[in-house]
Amino acid sequence: VYKRVENRKKRKYDDCIRNVEHGCFSPLVFSTNGGLAPVSDTVALITSEKQNKPYSPLINFIRCKLSFSILQSTIPCIRGTRKSLYRPSVYDPDVALSDGHIINY
């Protein structure tokens, strides 16, 4: 199912992105119960090889960041927005994993 939806999105947007923006397109496909399409595993594998980091913590970090990003974007749709006063930034997976927290900012 993931592959079919992924291919449909790729057919729809790939030509435009290649011709207009001169980039490449890798669609992210999710299910309502938390499943991810295989492209996210590929992205994690390539990233772990480039950064010489273990695959397992990196894919867990990516899944967690994506889950919180999706959750963070749906909550304002349900209850309305509230401005956040404090926004810590943790972009490095090693720092987030070593400190024991994952923050989406």
UniProtKB/TrEMBL annotation:
Q: What name goes with this protein?
A: Uncharacterized protein
